[in-house]
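For the sake of transparency, this paper describes our internal protein records without simplification. The record that follows is passed on verbatim for readers who wish to inspect the format:
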Amino acid sequence: MLALRPYQLEAADAVIAGLGQGLRRQLIVLPTGTGKTLVMAELARRLRRRALVLVHRRELVDQTVAKFAMLVPGIELGVVQGPRNAVGARHVTVASVDTLQDPRRLDQLTPDFGAVFADEAHHAVSTKWLHLLRWARCFAADGAVLVGFTATPRRADGVALGHVFQRIAYQRSLLWAIAQGYLCDLRGVAVRTRVSLDPVPLQDGELAEPALARVVNVANRNALVVDAYRQHAPGRRALCFTADVPHAEALAEAFRAAGIPAAAVSGGMAAGRRSQVLAELAAGRLAVLTNCAVLTEGYDEPSVSAVLMARPMVSQALYTQCVGRGTRLFPGKRDCLVIDFADNARRLQLQDLPTLAGGELKLAPRAGEGLRAALARQAALLGPDALAQGLGLEAEAFDLFRRSRFNWLPAGPALVLRLGPGDCLRLVPDAGRTGHFHVVHAGPDGSEHLSDESLDIGYAQGLAEDWARGHLGPFARRDARWRQRQATAKQLAELSRHGIAPGPGLSRGDASDLIERIFAARR
């Protein structure tokens, strides 16, 4: 069974403690990509009540089922969405909010759930969500307990979630997750345009789409978006967020005209065609996907390493959701580049990457600097203890600049952590699930899988490193003392045999890494 990360266990503990205090409607706030669904599954395991999971996008249904099955083997899961109608599941029913708007579908479910989990719970104050929460008796003293999960507790329209939830039981920020190494670094580029947004009115706290599209969907600005990608993010897999569907289609055409493989996705596409386009990006056959509000939630492609904000935004919640599509960890991915197109908006405070860090980051990132480097400068001025306290970190966990203390090395498409002679951990790509890896221990007595199923890269690495901490060998740590010593004569001879003439002062650790890469390339 998969071991949860410390903060996931803390989140579940906080909810259980709140229930003990009589709080029946609680909210958990965690950034995109940090495993909210696993916290949900852990709570279902602990509460032992028949549970209903409400999701609002069909892409989230199968993701939720997979995570529950991974954490709670043997659990009986049912899906109510589209043609699927497993209403009698004993343990957990995962249901689409839109499907349950049909009274005939809702009538087939018995409202005897002991727990309701609301994914993307910032939607919970909407009319259709409230209807389902009342149906499940979440507001009754003897009804189902409600736990909501979101990355963005603020809504663009300003409606407070306090109408539904009694308290935020647990909260961690995007910057905290980046600092801890659970998410990749973010780096921003601002591209100035000559477009004025002054004529565009606000609607529900955001720029009104029809008027906004008329202003930003113009040939010169679209060409600027393409040029910015070519200059700053060539070769990166990118998502581009647009003002409306015609804007997405126009930008996709502009990218293709420049020789960059691109496609537009929209809510009106057939599900099969949209899945095909998303698979083409995952496989690298497309470089850029343009979309209007389709990929802001429920889309999980960890290889995305660039986000193009071709749509200016007022709402921090919407901006955070968009940027969060690029923060997941992936082999070879050093950071996610966010390109903001800074239109002229004298009457508005538009969102950009520095504002996303909020009050936690006191120093604006320099040109080309990631958030981790900005945190490092801030730590140099304020001291690590002050910064750690501000981020809710443990002082000893203040390791912002290296995502892992373990010496992972690329081995073709896999990653290898050498523990000792003839002993290593390997993260092996799952050919059937993009971005997922098998965790394999290869030792003197043979190989064994440490997980029943493949995991996304963040969890695969976490599982491997948790195992490695209990079985530390001499080669695992980046900071092992032997790595700092002079390379041995045997290492230098091996490198020379392969045509490598290292410079003076080569360390034993660097020599070991070079030799490991040579042998990995031959496997």
